[in-house]
């Protein structure tokens, strides 16, 4: 099947129904392996066992940013090509990205207290991540409060593109400003600075969380397509009733 | 297995993550069954989409 055929919502639903069970199985499989490796991972020489929070915090941070990146690409599809599936993809990514950003903020705070001595500081990395969460709430408000879905979609798409400016700020905040947050340690010039005994379970958990994100994203897109069908059928029913009573 | 003196923080981080993801999954599953039920009800009453009528 050509990729362009997926742009048809009915064909897309057909593919999602076939792919989802496999994605769920792969996600569960990777989480089982990931948690097994996390439980067997050694303590950090400085942070002790609190390093176990890293296996949740880091993937959540990546996926919080990935979700917004996905929404920005979908926003181009909405504004430039006005394709309804692009809007569906953007709208579906918002609650999932918001959930992962929330997990990142909470686990980061719980990690910060024993290692830094504080739950929160208004430094560049933490603040820019909080801004990302607030932007997610803004997009969700636009989607959920718009009476006409098309208008809400365009406004959310514009906010998605404007908010994308925050992504490089989050990424490079630890290089541009003095922050309490540590600099990049996984993807950096010269290779990762994390010991393989901790890096391997981290990467397995990152892939597992990414598969979870993709699984949820496809499932939420399916729900949204069905919701739009319900709306369209209800409008037709109301139109028929109005014509019959006229 | 011992999580040391900061076990509370580690357990809390995992509990929050599991709770948020479980809530997300529950919302997705409930929403899917709700939309399927409403669609089924509309189809039973003979309401069809325009694309279905053309086909």
Can you summarize this structure?
Chain A has 246 residues and is an all-alpha fold.
What does this structure look like?
- In chain A, 78% of the residues lie in helices and 0% in strands.
- Chain A has 246 residues and is mostly helical.
- Chain A has one domain.
- In chain A, helix 2 packs parallel to helix 7 and helix 3 packs antiparallel against helix 4.
- The termini of chain A are far apart.
- The relative contact order of chain A is 0.15.
- Chain B is mainly alpha-helical and 55 residues long.
- Chain B has a domain of 34 residues.
- Chain B is 78% helix and 0% strand.
- The mean pLDDT of chain B is 88.
Number of discrete domains of chain A: 1
Strand content bin of chain B:
under 5%
Helix tally of chain B equals 2
N-to-C terminal Cα separation of chain A, in Å? 46 Å
SSE order and pairing:
The complex is a heterodimer of chains A (246) and B (55).
Chain A: H1 9-40, H2 54-81, H3 84-116, H4 124-145, H5 149-163, H6 166-176, H7 196-245
Chain B: H1 7-44, H2 50-54
Give a quick set of tags describing it.
heterodimer; A: 246 residues; mainly alpha; 7 helices; globular; B: 55 residues
